[in-house]
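Running this now, will post back.
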Amino acid sequence: MEERLCEAAITGNTISLGEILAEDSIILDRVVVGCFKRSPLHVAVSLGHADFVRALLHHTPELAEVLDSQQRSALHLAAAKGRSEIAKELTRGKVEVLEELVQVNPHAARVRVGKGETILHLCVKHNQLRTLEKLLEIIKVQEFVNAKDDGGNTLLHLAVADKKN
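Update: finished.
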């Protein structure tokens, strides 16, 4: 069953995921408690399968807290690979998880994605203000708050530009 779940994650096949869950409703719970060598969420995030990620998190939101063998969360992978849609999905309603993630790997919050954006830029860009507030509480580093993306935009620039649109 583990192999089928892994294959579904690799291909991003949400139909197969549904079939697997119908056959074994607690398979994702076993992932959460560490019975699997690798998390299907990490695999799907790495390969950019946003719909599969969404389906996994809908069924078992705790998967967002699972760390891989290198102590990285799925959010760390999403940020490192510039997968902003997936990062948004991983942080929706999970502000409390961010504190845990940043404590495990504080440098992950400084990773730049896409156009040189930090996770703070992504929070403003995707209107994730609760997440932004929590990150600012945790990070408390002024130069990070004033960081510019490749377009020279700080968080304030993005916030003001968003209000004009």
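The chain has a mean pLDDT of 83. More later if anyone needs it.
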